[in-house]
Design goal:
The protein is an alpha+beta fold and 760 residues long. It has 18 helices and 24 strands. Strands 1, 2, 3, 4, 5, 8 and 9 form a seven-stranded antiparallel β-sheet that branches. Strands 11-10-14-13-12 form a five-stranded antiparallel β-sheet, with helices on both faces. The protein has a five-stranded antiparallel β-sheet with strand order 16-15-19-18-17, sandwiched between helices. α5 crosses α8 and α6 crosses α8. It starts with a helix and ends with a helix. The mean pLDDT is 79.
Length: 760
């Protein structure tokens, strides 16, 4: 910027000096011409220079004055630039000072400003800022101390009220103390450990209250005297503060996660040097000194209150025990008399029940598989049928074994859920149960597992009773598999003896386009066309009287379409040998039936066509003989025309080449042999490309189209090209291509004229 500024003024000075020099020189020329009586013309000015040589110096006067103006204005511009720079620096410093003062006025005592050595005003204002900052810090410190004293006083009043309101309930007292203490001092978690020393042989601390994150926690923890940090705090009777808590000692849990606190304080609750408990406070942030002092004062008040409450509770307890003991003695005497009478009646009833139970047990053991298990699944007793059915010899082989020994591994998860419910006194189990014998065989039973309860209502043992159904189960599974396979492969439906549909598989419903409810509203007689009604009634009467039917039937879909079925109707009798239902087993043969009908129709049509063919054959043979004779005559005529045309073309002076659509040479006349210096035998049947070099069509679109079978030929235009003879001589020629199309066959004729011959 400085150089641009100086250049601007220097140019202005130069122009001004140059202008002044020119004006002064013009005035000198006018005065000199007038003085010497000369004309003001170039010739007069030239005479003036001869008369007065001094004018030669005057001629350089504009340049001299312009140079002087250049240097003068350059110096002047530098001085102006220095002045403006100094002015800008002063303005910038004053603006910074103004912004600094504005921040101070707005109360920002932390605003920064660095004055220069010569900036007395700036130094004074910075000093004023430091004084204001110090004054504000002292004021904040005083307010903070007042606030802490007020906070402590209000807190002591709060806890004094808590201690007065809850001095009759030690559990509620301890909870209210730590709940309000956590909230008041900003801790995260706290616990109250009360010393229980009623039994001198078992002195310990019991956690009576635990509080964290605005929630009451479950408190039931016992710490022996002297154990852990709580015990150490009580033994030393001094406050313990930990700023680095051992990993896993304590964790603060919230909905956001789980973390170790960073600060732990344990405060002994002592009165007259006797410890009554310990308060444990955990926090993520350390406590301030005033908070620690407040906690110490609260601990002293709590210790005094607990000591008083414990004395009151102990006194009340002794009084209550005395009254209860007196009442209890009187009740025991009356109960003893009543118990003796009830015991005698119970013994008599027990004898009767024992006899009944022994009889019932013997009956069960003779008819059912029985075993007793404890709640853990250990076998306590097994009867003879259990041993026999599970292929064991003696009780010693099974007693003490776990029930899982008799359950297949594949059934463990299912059975474990049942056993878990039973072991907790849940609902008994009834149903099919598969057991595993000693030799690994399956034993199917109709089983019952039920809980045997004791007098207190708890589960004493679990009783298993079962009936062997292995043969029936295997037969049932076999039947189920057969029915499932039948439902997957065949159409199946069940009808009542009157013909009403009662059940149908998915294949039946899909084939006839019904849903089950709609199908059940119809009878077998409504599924067949009206033309088949009498036939199905006759078949149905035979089936009801024990004569099964197997054959083909048409049925109608819900849309009225006909479907063909190969079906079997079989009656099923009940235990009284009466017809209970009729089962339909069928396969859809609609496609085969349609193919059969189509085959019959086509057979009839073929017979008619064969007769027509025999009639046409004689006529065709006659026409064929006539056509052959005609073709033979036409071929002879074509051969004559072809020979005549070839002989005509052979006499042409121009070279003629005939190719098919694949570029294979069909005709090559004598002139072509002479032009290309190659015999006809070597060309006929070969590609036309053998007559031209490999690179002949690179820059010639006309020749490239002629040589490429896949490109359209340029016909009807005579083009000049250069060919290479067999001897290597290049010849300029004129080439014309024509197209001849007969039916689907296309041939191309190339007429080539040697123009080099015409030039000579």
């Amino acid at each position: 910027m400085k150089s641009k500024f100086a250049l601007k003024y220097s140019v202005q000075g130069s122009l001004l000096g140059l202008t002044v020099g020119i004006v002064f020189l013009a005035i000198a020329y006018v005065v000199g011409v007038l003085t010497n009586d000369l004309a003001l013309t170039p010739g007069g000015i030239q005479d003036l220079h001869r008369i007065m040589p001094l004018f030669y110096i005057f001629d350089f006067l504009p340049i001299i004055i312009g140079a002087v103006g250049f240097f003068v204005y350059q110096k002047l511009s530098l001085r102006i630039n220095d002045f403006e720079t100094t002015l800008q620096e002063n303005i910038s410093r004053e603006r910074k000072l103004y912004r600094f003062v504005e921040k101070l006025r707005e109360g920002d005592v932390d605003a920064e400003y660095t004055p220069d050595d010569t900036d007395a005003l700036g130094k004074a204002i910075v000093s004023l800022r430091n004084d204001i900052r110090q004054s504000r810090l002292e004021e904040e410190k005083r307010k903070k101390e007042d606030e802490q004293r007020r906070w402590a006083a209000e807190g002591m009043a709060l806890f004094g009220e808590i201690l007065r309101q809850n001095n009759d309930n030690i559990e509620e007292l301890t909870f209210q103390v730590i709940r309000n203490l956590v909230n008041y001092v900003g801790a995260n978690q706290a616990a109250f450990y009360l010393l229980e020393d009623d039994d001198e042989t078992d002195i310990h601390f019991r956690m009576t209250a635990c509080y964290a994150y605005e929630r009451r926690k479950y408190a039931d923890r016992i710490i022996p005297w002297g154990d852990g940090l709580v015990g150490a705090c009580a033994l030393e009777k001094e406050k313990i503060i930990l700023k680095k808590i051992p990993q896993g000692y304590l964790s603060i849990t919230s909905g956001l996660g789980k973390a170790n606190p960073k600060f732990l304080m344990l405060i002994p609750l002592k009165m007259n040097d006797v410890v009554h408990g310990v308060i444990e406070l955990a926090s993520f942030n350390p406590f301030e000194n005033y908070q620690e002092e407040f906690i110490d004062k609260v601990a002293e008040s709590v210790a005094t209150t607990i000591a008083t409450v414990k004395i009151n509770i102990r006194t009340a307890k002794l009084l209550k025990e005395s009254r209860e003991q007196a009442e209890e003695l009187a009740l025991k005497e009356e109960q003893m008399r009543q118990n003796m009478e009830e015991l005698q009646a119970t013994q008599e009833e027990a004898s009767r029940q024992s006899a009944k139970f022994i009889s019932f047990s013997n009956s069960v053991n003779h008819t059912m598989i029985r075993a007793d298990f404890d709640v853990d699944g250990t076998l306590l007793y097994a009867n003879t049928k259990f041993l026999q059915k599970l292929e064991y010899s003696t009780n010693s082989e099974v007693e003490g074994k776990h029930i899982s020994m008799f359950i297949n591994k594949k059934d463990r998860q299912w059975f474990d859920d049942i056993w878990s419910t039973l072991s907790k006194g849940g609902k008994h189990f009834e149903g099919d149960m598969k057991l595993l014998t000693r030799n690994g065989n399956d034993l199917w039973t109709i089983a019952t597992f039920t809980c045997v309860r004791n007098d207190a209502g708890g589960v004493d043992k679990i009783l298993f009773l079962g009936i062997d159904t292995t043969d029936q189960k295997k037969l049932s599974l076999d039947y189920e598999g057969q029915i499932s396979a039948l439902n997957r492969s065949s159409i199946k439906a069940e009808f009542s003896p009157t013909g009403d549909l009662t059940e149908a598989n998915e294949k039946f419903l899909l084939t006839l386009s019904y849903n089950l409810n709609a199908a059940k509203e119809k009878s077998i007689f409504e599924f067949v066309p009206s033309a088949e009604r009498k036939n199905i009634e006759r078949v149905w009467d035979d089936v009801i009287h024990g004569i099964p039917y197997e054959g083909q039937f048409r049925m109608l879909t819900s849309n009225g379409d006909e479907r063909w079925f190969r079906c079997t109707f079989t009656a099923v009798n009940d235990m009284y040998n009466e017809v209970a239902k009729v089962i339909l087993i069928a396969n859809d043969i609609t496609r085969e039936k349609n193919m059969e009908f189509e085959t019959q129709r086509q057979t009839e049509q073929l017979k008619k066509q064969e007769e027509q063919l025999r009639q046409n054959e004689a006529e065709l043979n006659k026409k064929l003989r006539e056509a052959k004779e005609e073709v033979r005559n036409q071929y002879k005529e074509i051969e004559k025309v072809k020979i005549r045309n070839e002989k005509t073309l052979e006499g042409f002076l121009d070279a003629i080449i005939t190719t098919d659509h694949d570029g294979i040479v069909q005709f090559f006349n004598k002139a072509a042999e002479e032009l290309f210096e190659i015999s006809r035998d070597k060309v006929i049947g070969q590609s036309v490309r053998i007559l031209f070099p490999d690179n002949a069509s690179e820059n010639d679109e006309f020749l490239d189209a002629y040589l490429d079978p896949n490109k359209e030929k340029i016909t009807g235009q005579r083009k000049e090209i250069t060919i290479l003879t067999k001897s290597g001589k290049e010849l300029p020629v004129l080439m014309l291509i024509t197209e001849a199309k007969v039916g689907r066959e296309i041939t191309y004729n190339a007429f080539i004229q040697n123009i080099s011959v015409d030039l000579f």
